[in-house]
Hints:
By secondary structure, the protein is of the alpha/beta class. The chain is 37% helix and 15% strand. Strand 7, helix 8 and strand 8 form a beta-alpha-beta unit. The longest helix is centred in the first third of the chain and has 15 residues, at 87-101. The two termini are 19 Å apart. 47% of the residues are buried.
Amino acid sequence: MIGEKIQIWRDGEYNYPGAYGFVPFMVSYVHEDEEIRPGMLIAPGGAYRYASPSEAHLPAMEFYRAGYNVFVLAYTVNYLEEPLKTQPLSDIARAVRILRRHSGRCHIDPGRLVVCGFSAGGHLCASLCVHHKDIRDPDAVYDAITARPDAALLCYPVITSGEYANQESFRALCGEQPDAAELEYMSLEKHVTEDMPPCFLWQTVTDTSVPVENSCLFARACREAKVPFAHHVFSGGRHGMSVATEEWLERDYGQPYTLEQIRLLAEAVRAGRTSLPAEAAEEILREHELDGTKKQKWSPAEKEEIRAGMYEVTCWRELAKCWLARMLDLDMPSKVYGGEKE
């Protein structure tokens, strides 16, 4: 089934102050058969300020066609300066535990569960990889289930809070005046151990939003800890290229369900339930194209420039599928090389 919404917290378990009625959820991309398949949980990016639709449906369909049962996580984000702390990490840990507990219903192998994150979503997935033992669940049944992924795909990930930090992501997580211990905990290259799952990383040299040093630092830490990893650095391409296809370039992202928290925030602003003036609601909706309009993001010349780099970057998808087949010991070559059999 494609499009089923799975709420991950029950009443009384979730209380982020900036939610305004939002409760984190997953959206499913599950094959209509009884086959037990590897599972994948996708975390879109957005600097922890929003969850980008460009990194949700498109990668979900990419790995669905490759034989995975896929779930996209709409996790907690911080639009109004209410520091997130570890709330997104609790969200993704609960999501992994739900998928493992209900693996039969989801038709996934609980020992072949991959997380895939983009940008800040990459930070979230990598946080789970390094800190999975720290995240306790309020439900004793879920708490007894491991939140450790079996592998991770980290796509242009935010990693370090140090010299090469994407400062916006860390402000959203820790606030304007974080203490040193918080930043240390969120600087993930400092917490890699041999207990971490295998990781596949990719990024471009010319990324100006999240410097390439982020993935380099994490890859080096994996090497030093003897964690299996692959690291691909492409010579050109901008930040946020997602699956790097024409569909992505034309911004055909599918339904923007990952923006549910932003939509509910705009409703709260309009109703006077926030510190923002009511007219800010329309600006929020317009910024995220939730007002029914579609922005012309790139000029024809910019599209050609992006397309030139895209043709190199697009191969990350096949590289990742081949790497996962090896790491997860998958006997499915027809699905790795170009999708399912006819």
